[in-house]
Amino acid sequence: MKGLIKFYHPDETLEYHIRKCFCKVVFLNNKTTLVVEIESDDDLDHVEEDSYQNEYPQVSFSIEDFEIPVKTVQQLSGKSFQIPAFEEKENENGDTEEVYYTNLNINDEEDLETNDNELKFGKDEKGNLKLIWQGYCNDFISQEEPLRFKVSCSFTQDALEVDD
Predict the structure, then answer these.
(1) 52, 12 Cβ separation under 8 angstroms
(2) pTM of the predicted model, to two decimals?
(3) Which of 67, 80, 68 is closest to 117 using CA atoms?
């Protein structure tokens, strides 16, 4: 398993197993940016029949175009970042536009903002890059208070199998 995603709803904690995740440092428009994608599987074998999670079997998180002060993925270990959901920036025409950095997608249908995003990079016990991402998102269950979430994943190289 690559990691876990947890949403801390007042009635229950929703727990998702991560199916795939990747992290890249990209040079874009003369700046170095972070790209992260994390997707859960839709396996609900560990979920009770009356769980809210049955209505939301799959989630995915992403970060795009957030400028960082490192040049390679290897330099991320030991670094922490506070990432806003979006910023207003001036484009090349002098117009102000909103640039979104983070996204949470529920069931491939609904996009939600994540707020108070804190990312901490380190190494797991095997020396792979590890990410702990904590923050808040809109309550997609009861539409009340924001939900706290925590993502913990290791970016491991999948074994490549080639048939002869």
Answers:
(1) yes
(2) 0.88
(3) 80
Q: How many whole angstroms separate alpha carbon 74 and alpha carbon 120?
A: 14
| Three-state secondary structure call for residue 143 | coil
CA distance 115 to 138: 9
Give φ, ψ of 158 to 5 degrees: -70, 145
What b-and-e string marks burial along 26-37, b requiring 16 or more CB atoms within 10 Å of the CB? Answer: eeeeeebbbebe
Is 30's pLDDT higher than 90?
A: no
pLDDT at residue 14 tops 70 = yes
* Best CA proximity match to 72, nearest among 26, 35, 118, 22: 26
Q: From CA 112, how far away is CA 81, in angstroms rounded? A: 20
Whether 10 and 139 have beta carbons less than 8 Å apart is answered as: no
In this structure, what is the dihedral angle of CA atoms 157, 65, 17, 112, given to the nearest 10 degrees?
-170
Average pLDDT, the chain: 89
Q: DSSP characters for 87-134?
A: EEEE-TTS-EEEEE-EEEEETTTEEE-EEEEEEEEEE-TTS-EEEEEE
C-beta atoms surrounding 151 within 10 Å: 25
CB 61 within 8 A of CB 37: yes
Report the DSSP beta bridge partners of residue 40: 18
